[in-house]
Amino acid sequence: MKRHLNPQDLKALASGELSRQAARTAVAHLIHGCGPCRREAAELWQLAGSPEAPPEDAYDAAFDRLSAALGGGATGAEVEALLQRAWGARHGDPEEMRRTARQAVLAAGGLSGRPELLSRAWALYGNACRIAGDLTEAQEALDRAAEILGSEGGSPEDRALLYELQASLESARGNHDLALAALDAAFALHQERGDGHMAGRALIIKGLYTGWAGRSREAFRITQRGLGMVDEAREPELVLAAIHNQIWFLVESGRLREARSLLGARRDELATDEAQRLDLLWLEGRIRAGLRDERRALADLEAVEQGFAAAGRRFQAANVKLDQAAIQLRLGDSARALGLVRAAEEAFLQLEISQSTRMALAFLRQRLAQRALPAPVVLRLADIIRRGQRGAGR
């Protein structure tokens, strides 16, 4: 529908006076994100006669009710478009992902004979809830998606998607073994349907979660196997992310010369933007520190900390302070190390961190004040905190 909806259209839509075909067309127009019509709908449906501007979610609340009453009002192709739009927003706008996925659930609910599409919508909505930090609703949505498919229903691809999203949820909860088991199931399903690329992708994700669990050597091997299966032309960003992960795994497991070699060989490919350049410089600083090139390592890490702070990446900036503290301990400057740990703790306490991380930081500060903590322990804590933050993310 190319023209905008007028107030009469919207009033008739809300009151049920439009024909079903006209209602379907109007709902499709709103689903595709026409801003002026969405704002007009919010005012007419939610706050008619109110002098105040409608809240941001006024349209969503009204449309949820309307969509439920209409039984969806969208075609399968329109639901697919909603799902694609929701997936595309997962990094840049998680809240938009959640709203759009919810609309997809409502729209798919009115389709007959398309249970796999409704299941996929619920699954994506569950993933959006996980990204937003609502783990309880995420589990309820994934359970609903699985219930719709049934124990043997859906294609292997649909069932594999559910296992992959369940793995992400279990990882966010810290249940690493359950996450890895779910990814094993996804891998087997992708193998069953003959998609080596997706099977390799599942292995790369498994490698990442294995690294988050602290098993860096195993994580490197799993990721290497996954890289041997994926089609780089099909998903080049996946390959670069996997190589970046491997460098971290090598650093964390003490294989520093291998890490330096891999970073040097793939630097130009990996440094795709300023954010990646900073991440690589962070890795390089850690590598130099491990190879006892402390002065250059400190210069790298100080530049990285400044870059992270300027980019608003406060968690990473605080974490780099711990890396610097470990180097200062090795150089024998325990006072400067303690100052860095105190600054890192203060920065972390302004962010959302777990109680266990708070306790670990306090322990680190106290023991450093007593001069009773070696540099490797500081580095180990920095790795644990960094992995925990990445595990809770996208």
Spell out the key features of this protein.
394 residues; mainly alpha; Serine Threonine Protein Phosphatase 5, Tetratricopeptide repeat; 76% helix; elongated
What does this protein structure show overall?
- By secondary structure, this protein is mainly α.
- The chain has a domain at 155-266: Serine Threonine Protein Phosphatase 5, Tetratricopeptide repeat.
- It is built from 20 helices and no strands.
- The chain has helices at residues 7-15, 20-31, 35-46, 58-70, 76-88, 94-108, 115-131, 135-149, 156-173, 176-192, 196-212, 216-227, 236-252, 256-270, 274-290, 294-310, 314-330, 334-349, 355-369, 375-391.
- The longest helix is centred in the middle third of the chain and has 18 residues, at 156-173.
- Mean pLDDT is 84; it is low at 47-51.
